[in-house]
Amino acid sequence: MQNAQVTAGGARIRWVEIPGGDGRTRVYLHGLGASSGPYFTASAVHPLLAGSRSLLMDMLGFGISDRPTDFDYTLEAHADAIAVALRAADAYATDVVAHSMGGSVAIVLAARHPELVARLVLIDANLDPVAPDRQRPGSSGIAAYTEEEFLGQGMAEVRDRVGPHWWSTMRLSGSEALYRSAVHLARGTTPTMREQLLELKIPRTYLRPEGDGPLPDEDGLVEGGVRVVPVPGCEHNIMLDNPEAFVKETARALGLG
């Protein structure tokens, strides 16, 4: 396990590093309430993707990384903290493979720190703001609480709503980190994540569940140079639901297949 101090207060981001000798570095970023190891290890060592140095990185507040309570957990703050960790790891011009909230953070990372990102593979990432709604899972449901409510009974209510699979990693999150990250993910960025994605000049691929149908303004993304790929036989966790298709499409997006 590797680590780097990423805040003035001493908080550290940690990651699992898988060596590779092809000269490329690949960074995997998890979604809200998740951890990169459980979600990406099998894909990272698959024959189609093995060979590159791979960093399975946990964002501040999640998984094996520190959970500072004085961090604001905006998408920009997450991106800047990851940038510090990547520089400490001497990881430049990386291929970033990122799921859900991690995809949103990856877009901001590429926009704010372009020397660190050469290609993006986004996995059902959030591109637009969403309205808080306590009955919905994910960032929208968490953002419908106040922080005081969430730190009180809200965390237990979310646990009961999301079920044991997601909770297995969500329980590793700092409560403040989970809440604030959800609020800022639901609120989005200015410009929006979609707008920032369209401004990037690097290869960009967006993987979405085929059963969900087209993304909002999917044609606009395609016209803007984003390759949108419907993946069959999966829901939101594409890498877990259909791992073979996920690896195949990710390898294709990275010029490996």
TrEMBL record:
This is Alpha/beta hydrolase. Residues 27-132 form the AB hydrolase-1 domain. GO terms for molecular function: hydrolase activity. Gene3D superfamilies: alpha/beta hydrolase. The lineage of its organism: Bacteria, Bacillati, Actinomycetota, Actinomycetes, Kitasatosporales. The keyword rRNA-binding does not apply. Keywords: Hydrolase. Coiled coil: none annotated.
